[in-house]
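Lecture 7 notes: from sequence to structure.

We start with a single chain of 175 residues. Read the sequence below before looking at the structure.
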Amino acid sequence: MRAFLILAAATALASPTLAGPLGPLGPAAEGKVQCFQPNEAARTCQSIGAYRFGPNGEIENIATMMILTGPVVIMTTRAPAHIKGDRDCGTLRPEHIDRSTFSFDGKPANAAQTAALRAQMKASLAATFGHEACSAYMPNGSALLATSTLDGAPRPALDQKMIWVSPSDGYRVAP
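Now the structure, written as tokens:
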């Protein structure tokens, strides 16, 4: 479930009341990415959420997340996102997992590994497919707290620390 909410969304430069059409994703328009569960000393993240903005207002969330720590397995998926009030939302579908890519200890997964991981992720996320997941970003000290909902119901067990970082800051998904 946690991976799903990272996928859907996504992560003290922003506030949930940021003005403009990008609302909580305003820093993404400046090229920043979301670092969830950051280790600032090591410049690592449990996951990174990036966004691409299309000419007609469409938003694509590119989520890169660590799904295993030994060996380190990282999954990258792309899914549409939208702004709903002060929240960053998306609805995960099986085809998003079908297009996901994976790496093992920094090397691209082979075809058999990719097929197995896609099947495992689809099985573990099946109950969430077609349900809207949203995240709001609340001030939390020097960072933000990404609070999560699924179909509008709060999911506090999935809330996590998030900071906005520039790609040039050198953060990466790693243990």
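The mean pLDDT is 89. Keep this in mind for problem set 3.
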